[in-house]
Design goal:
The complex is a heterodimer of chains A (about 140) and B (about 70).
Chain A (H helix, E strand, L loop, with lengths): L1 E3 L1 E4 L11 E4 L1 E8 L2 E9 L7 E3 H6 L9 E5 L5 E13 L2 E10 L6 E2 L8 E6 L4 E6 L7
Parallel strand pairs in A: 5-10, 6-9
Antiparallel strand pairs in A: 1-12, 2-3, 4-5, 4-8, 7-8, 8-9, 11-12
Chain B lengths: L2 H11 L6 E4 L6 E5 L2 H10 L6 E4 L10
Antiparallel strand pairs in B: 1-2, 1-3
Classes of the chains: A mainly beta (about 140), B alpha+beta (about 70).
Chain lengths: ~140, ~70
Amino acid sequence: MKFRYLPFKACPSPAFPGRKSIPRPVIRIALKQGAEIYDLWAFVDSGADYCYFPSEVGEALGLEVESGPRDEVRGAGGQAFSVYFHPIELIVGGQTISIRAGFGNQIAFAVLGSIGFFDRFEVTFNFRKSVVELKPINALSDM
Amino acid sequence: MKRDQRKDLWARLADYQDQWVALSADEREIVAWDRSFKEAVAKARKKGEPHPVMLKVPLETGGYLV
């Protein structure tokens, strides 16, 4: 499966006055819980430990988000916030896999990280060609 | 989505920073938008798109580091 990077408009700054756009590895997925299913574009993030989604996506799927086991996650800036893990079905390129994902109020975007995504797919980033390629691999444990 | 469609889309998405955008199932059109995920989905369905593709458009004030 190949996905093209999605360019986002970027604001010029004193550091990068000519910056107009930033290409980011965003792929189409779906999240399924019971009869509810939503298609989303998600960021493929090799720096994320798990897969994370905004709480409001979990609520739309019918989850009682804060009823799930709590974990603490820290961003690159060091700030900590709470996420709540739930079993969920992740659909990528027509393939459905069962994962546990974290949902939180301070998660702004759909993020596909190491456990739940990178352990299920061989992921190749080719920035120059603006392509992310995925190959399914045997699932490892969910840890 | 083909390359040209994605190249074109980034300029259109810039008008919806920090909002949920609902794209048509074929990803060609912006059908609806809202700060709330549920509201954006509801608006898209009301406009005749039962299965929108949802994207939270980042607020672009600089780079992102996650």
